């Protein structure tokens, strides 16, 4: 059975599993990010969702926001062994429901190239004329 839990104060085991998921996705370099960053990410998010199957975290996603006018969904990922089972969809649906329940109406997502077919059935639309941009600190 798939369930979604919203984390605020994760256990060491939950943090370790989330680190595994980020690294498995190739989003984090080995040795660069780890448990302390995960705790800060979870605590700093408007909502941090953990999808579980039989008590094991198999997917995550989060909403970040100003808690007043808008929010963004990001870091949606599912363990490759559990993909194509509706887990990512469930994560996004639960996050957007919670954010809308807080009175926020505008929810954006900056998605990886080719992921529009995942997000459009969930109510997201491409923003014509918009260009996602990034600035990183070297």
Strand order of the largest sheet: 1-2-3-4-5
CATH architecture: 3-Layer(aba) Sandwich
Instruction: Output mean pLDDT.
Output: 93
Poorly predicted runs are none
Note the gap between the termini.
43 Å
CATH topology: Aminopeptidase
Radius of gyration, in angstroms, nearest whole number: 15 Å
> Structural class, from secondary structure content?
alpha+beta
Protein name: Acetyltransferase (GNAT) domain-containing protein
GO molecular function: N-acetyltransferase activity
InterPro entries: Acyl_CoA_acyltransferase, GNAT_dom, NSI-like
Pfam families: Acetyltransf_10
Please write out the topology.
Blueprint: E1 2-6, H1 12-25, H2 35-44, E2 47-53, E3 56-65, E4 70-78, H3 87-101, E5 106-109, H4 116-119
Parallel strand pairs: 4-5
Antiparallel strand pairs: 1-2, 2-3, 3-4
Polypeptide structure, described:
The chain is α+β, with helices and mostly antiparallel strands. The chain has one domain (2-122): 3-Layer(aba) Sandwich (Aminopeptidase). The chain is built from 4 helices and 5 strands, in the order βααβββαβα. It has helices spanning 12-25, 35-44, 87-101, 116-119, and strands at residues 2-6, 47-53, 56-65, 70-78, 106-109. It starts with a strand and ends in a 19-residue tail after the last helix.
